[in-house]
């Protein structure tokens, strides 16, 4: 009887989690010092020329933090972009105020992998090295997901 009670309790907890929209992120995550990145995902690109990268950056420190760039063994360059009115424009950095977080999402800030050196498909992983001022670097593995799965992995706020 105890075992069936435990199973019922676990089933109820799972149902509550689903009802509340709770689920584990499929995206990559990493922490270095006061910097945390999570929900790092790449929608499978339409071509090998470039791919978007989305994520959440959290600044757990008491000082301003700026994402200044990065690199990947799978791309010639990584550029920081922002979309405004349907047009993409490069930006020199993405500021994350102390004690806050910034979402890199479709229609806003995001990273662009340019001149991708291999065909990318669902299930692949891309290693990203991200550089922040003041002097923080971290490495994260970003899974490739369908566009719908990648976007649904990102938190709403």
Q: Briefly note the CATH topology name.
A: Immunoglobulin-like
Domains, number: 1
- CATH superfamily heading: PCu(A)C copper chaperone
Q: What is the residue-mean pLDDT, rounded to a whole number?
A: 85
Number of helices: 2
- Summarize the biggest pleated sheet: 11 strands, mixed
Distance N to C terminus: 42 Å
- Report the order of strands and helices: HEEEEEEEEEEEH
Structural class per helix/strand content?
A: alpha+beta
Helix content: 10-25%
CATH top level is Mainly Beta
Oligomer: single chain
Q: Count of DSSP E strands? A: 11
Radius of gyration: 18 Å
How would you sum up the global shape? globular
Architecture (CATH level 2) name: Sandwich
- Measured by DSSP, the beta-strand proportion falls in over 45%
Poorly predicted regions are: 1-23
Structure summary:
By secondary structure, this protein is of the alpha+beta class.
Structure, explained:
With 157 residues, the chain is of the alpha+beta class. It has helices at residues 2-19, 147-153, and strands at residues 28-32, 35-43, 50-59, 65-71, 75-84, 87-90, 94-96, 101-104, 109-116, 125-133, 136-145. Strands 1, 2, 3, 4, 5, 6, 7, 8, 9, 10 and 11 form an eleven-stranded mixed β-sheet that branches. Strand 2 (35-43) and strand 3 form a beta hairpin. The radius of gyration is 18 Å and the shape is globular. The N and C termini lie far apart (42 Å). Residues 1-23 have low confidence and may be disordered.
């Amino acid at each position: 009887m105890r075992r069936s009670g435990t199973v019922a309790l676990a089933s109820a907890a799972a149902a509550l989690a689903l009802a509340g929209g709770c689920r584990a992120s499929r995206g990559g995550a990493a922490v270095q010092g006061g910097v945390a990145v999570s929900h790092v995902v790449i929608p499978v690109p339409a071509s090998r020329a470039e791919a978007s990268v989305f994520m959440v950056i959290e600044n757990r420190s008491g000082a301003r933090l700026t994402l200044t760039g990065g690199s990947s063994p799978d791309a010639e360059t990584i550029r920081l972009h922002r979309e405004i009115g349907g047009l993409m424009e490069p930006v020199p950095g993405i500021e994350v105020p102390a004690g806050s977080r910034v979402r890199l999402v479709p229609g806003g800030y995001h990273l662009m992998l340019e001149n991708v050196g291999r065909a990318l498909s669902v299930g692949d992983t891309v290693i990203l090295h991200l550089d922040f001022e003041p002097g923080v670097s971290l490495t994260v593995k970003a899974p490739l997901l369908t566009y719908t799965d990648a976007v649904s992995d990102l938190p709403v706020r």
